[in-house]
Amino acid sequence: MVFIKYILPALAASQLAFASSDCGDTTIENQSDASGISSCSTIDGDITIKSTYSGSLDLGSIEKIEGTLSCNGGSNVTGITAASLESISGNFTLKGLTTLTTLSFAKLSSVGAIDWEVLPGVNSLDFTTGITEVGDVNIIDTHLTSLDGITLKKVGQLDITENSYLKSCNISNLEYATGQINFQGNYDNLEIDLPNLTNGTSMTFRNISSINIPKLKSLTGQLGFWNTDFDVLYAPDLTETGDVVFTGNTKLTNVSLPALKTVDGGISISRNDKLQEIDLPKLSTVSGAIDLTGNFYELKFGALTRVDGAFNVESSNGTFSCSDLKSEYKSDVRGSWTCKTNDSNPTTSNGKSGTESGSSSSGGSSGSTSSSVAMANGVAAPVAGVAALFYALAQLV
Ligand SMILES: *[C@@H]1O[C@H](CO)[C@@H](O)[C@H](O)[C@H]1NC(C)=O
Ligand SMILES: *[C@@H]1O[C@H](CO)[C@@H](O)[C@H](O)[C@H]1NC(C)=O
Ligand SMILES: *[C@@H]1O[C@H](CO)[C@@H](O)[C@H](O)[C@H]1NC(C)=O
Ligand SMILES: *[C@@H]1O[C@H](CO)[C@@H](O)[C@H](O)[C@H]1NC(C)=O
Ligand SMILES: *[C@@H]1O[C@H](CO)[C@@H](O)[C@H](O)[C@H]1NC(C)=O
Ligand SMILES: *[C@@H]1O[C@H](CO)[C@@H](O)[C@H](O)[C@H]1NC(C)=O
Ligand SMILES: *[C@@H]1O[C@H](CO)[C@@H](O)[C@H](O)[C@H]1NC(C)=O
Ligand SMILES: *[C@@H]1O[C@H](CO)[C@@H](O)[C@H](O)[C@H]1NC(C)=O
Ligand SMILES: *[C@@H]1O[C@H](CO)[C@@H](O)[C@H](O)[C@H]1NC(C)=O
Ligand SMILES: *[C@@H]1O[C@H](CO)[C@@H](O)[C@H](O)[C@H]1NC(C)=O
């Protein structure tokens, strides 16, 4: 039967129905349930590992799962091995497998979506071939130290959150993302290398110590950095994006976006107390507001032609000069115009202190990370879904 199915994979209903009685949806309660399907090359349905499963599980010679592979709350599942498995067309969901240590999938290369949450015993992936095709990837609260084994060219959403041992993330093949990329609350020296990434929707980063995005050209959503630990943000090819946000990046000295022309949103830079230089020499149109506060002394605006929102630039550094800016750009700004230099208390458009050390008493809560320029100026916020949630969370901190 298995043999017939193998040589005539496309054979219609009768064969499939027949096959599915043995090699279809399967719930695994113990290893003998798994052994019952281990000779199937294709599972024409979902494999569900019951939460009561105990010990390690071997999926034998299964090559394909035309459905999901999932386990929710299997706190006694210690390992999952599938030496022959090449693809899972549905979601690969593992949640709350608190004693799981081994994930061994030597041939797995294609997965519908990865959805892993609360896997505190998993510190590496034994994925020899590596996953090259996947939809969304959500990896939350694991002890992974790297994402080796995930070598994608494209991804949907990439959400890497609260993996407190994750020291590096090097997805060198990744070329584009069709969903949001978000990193937050991972190991506080997380280094991110995305050398081939050219485009995406929105990208938000918190608590990271380095970022390399040398080929990034365009984003349709936000590019945002909070509480990071790097000196320089240099994105040499980035030409268009949604909101640009830099908030509370204590070591940041230099924001260099030499090719950036179009911002479909606002630009908010505040509370980055070491920031000296903001380099936007090609910036031409901004559909939201520009709100830059801090102690910077060098601001390069090369080609501003249109700002739909307000323009607020305030620096505590007296070396910074407003006079160059005024004549050139004032007429291109539709909203209000504010430029201050040598100001002891730089204040953002929404009344917050623009520096961490700001002596603000006028409502400048330096503990807040509120940062959406678009929101602050009544322009429709381009942030949606997950990003909006992170905003909400950030504002509670
Ligand atoms: C394995 O679980 C099945 C139910 O899925 C049960 O019928 C069978 O007796 C169990 N086998 C063992 C060895 O516990
Ligand atoms: C895991 O094993 C322990 C000890 O045998 C048991 O008390 C617990 O109910 C098991 N957990 C699940 C989810 O079956
Ligand atoms: C599969 O995963 C995606 C992304 O995590 C999720 O949006 C979707 O609801 C999941 N589908 C099922 C059937 O769980
Ligand atoms: C990332 O991987 C690429 C290719 O494997 C390598 O050249 C690069 O040095 C790695 N980056 C880091 C930070 O390890
Ligand atoms: C970018 O991708 C190409 C093709 O996949 C690869 O050969 C190259 O090593 C990658 N670049 C880096 C810096 O990893
Ligand atoms: C992230 O950074 C914030 C601000 O520096 C800090 O309060 C928080 O503890 C950090 N989170 C992690 C997981 O390091
Ligand atoms: C993103 O990059 C991929 C691969 O380089 C390309 O096929 C796709 O058209 C790009 N999408 C956008 C919106 O630029
Ligand atoms: C800021 O970074 C850019 C790109 O790395 C560099 O060219 C520029 O000299 C830097 N400016 C300062 C003041 O370090
Ligand atoms: C202002 O910038 C200059 C560099 O031109 C620097 O030497 C000085 O320390 C800065 N002032 C303050 C108050 O940080
Ligand atoms: C900055 O302000 C201080 C007093 O607030 C003043 O002594 C100093 O001369 C000013 N510097 C510049 C460059 O305007």
UniProtKB/TrEMBL annotation:
This is Leucine rich repeat 5. It is found in: Secreted, Cell wall. Residues 336-371 are annotated as: Disordered. Residues 347-371 have a biased composition (Low complexity). It holds the Pfam family Ecm33. Its main location: secreted. GO terms for cellular component: cell surface; fungal-type cell wall; plasma membrane. InterPro entries: CWI-Assembly_Regulator, Rcpt_L-dom_sf. It comes from the Eukaryota.
